């Protein structure tokens, strides 16, 4: 290529000047005479993606710009034709490309493209992981080792420790926990921090607290469960950190059984430690989820419950990838696992599913305003990888 595309920007009869890094869509009509086709041939369908910030797709005569490549930063383009175009004394090689949906197509200078499919990205999540649940291998990640606030995703550790103490015994499931804390009652009635309502001096079974904490993401129920496990809130948080240490989770530190930050917990008398929030990396969250699923597979059966009545109150599962929900897709076979949100942590979600012929996948997205949409994309990508095959 002898600088054909660069010269085009300098020739008034070819293309208007670049403004702010974007080529103007206005191309003079007489540009048609400026570009002549020297040769055209069909080539084997080949995948390409955007090489850098420059470039645009035109019709062959270069009288109309179809789209800027910067508008499609993560698109895979499929080239099926190659042409040599002459412009003045310069010649250049162009590819005829289409996106996967055939909604955008046209001719682009080959120097703006790089061979291969566009790398998979999640644009909204600040941290994310896809893990093979059987092997524990991370198959895709973004900022996976950065500890971040994780909100109610923290309850996965609380649920693990509660199930560990229950140990499958009916007597433990039916054990009654009396609520004597006015702070927990007040928390349960809060519009911001509550959910499952507690009555002072009323007793709830461990099983009721488990479902309220899991399905309804009840913060007060999670704290009550922790107190049952260890005898006090402080002792339970120490147990959470000890369990994280035993699993060698170097990017995990807990100050809360529920995932609420101390800035909220202190007003109810449940502040703990110097840090404001639980902070765990996306990879370590996936490891916690893997231990939970492996040791207590009932979590997957329970995780598919859309809603249920617990002590006369409806507990709603906020996992919108379940059947009947807005983001449900049958092929993904999602059967869990846990949502989370605080203003500090943003929207968080741990998902899991097992597609036919594939290993079970665990996905984690942290601080992601499109948590369900991006989880679907992440699961799709994970399933396409050979490391997820049975």
UniProtKB/TrEMBL annotation:
Its EC number is 3.4.-.-. It is an enzyme of class 3 (hydrolase). One of its GO terms (molecular function) is carboxypeptidase activity. Residues 123-369 form the Peptidase S11 D-alanyl-D-alanine carboxypeptidase A N-terminal domain. Residues 1-25 form the signal peptide. SUPFAM superfamilies: beta-lactamase/transpeptidase-like. InterPro entries: Beta-lactam/transpept-like, Peptidase_S11, Peptidase_S11_N. This is D-alanyl-D-alanine carboxypeptidase family protein. It comes from Levilactobacillus lanxiensis. The lineage of its organism: Bacteria, Bacillati, Bacillota, Bacilli, Lactobacillales.
